[in-house]
Amino acid sequence: CIRDRVFAVVKDEGPGFYHGVARKSGGGLGLTGMQERAMMIGGRVDIESIPGSGTTIRLNVPVQAAETQNV
To answer: Could you tell me the pTM of the whole model?
Structure first.
C-alpha cells in the first residue's frame, strides 16, 4: 500500500555518468552505500544516470523503517 511507504526523488542536471562503469572503477561508493542501507530496512534505491543528461535517484522505504531509522 502506498500509505505504508515513503517515496523521495532527487534529480540533478549535472554531467551524469555510466552507473555500471562508476561501480567497477571504485567510484560511486556513496550510491552503493545508499542502496545497501535501503535494502537493510526493506527499501529500494533506483539510480538512473545518463552522461550529459543528469541523474535521478528514487528512494522507496517502508514508513515504519523511515520513522525508526530517521531516513
So the answer is: 0.70
pLDDT tens-place values along the chain, 71 residues long: 668 999 999 999 999 887 665 555 555 568 888 889 999 999 999 999 989 999 999 999 998 755 565 55
Q: Is 66 helix (H, G, I), strand (E, B) or coil?
A: helix
Q: Which three cell numbers stand for residue 25?
A: 572503477
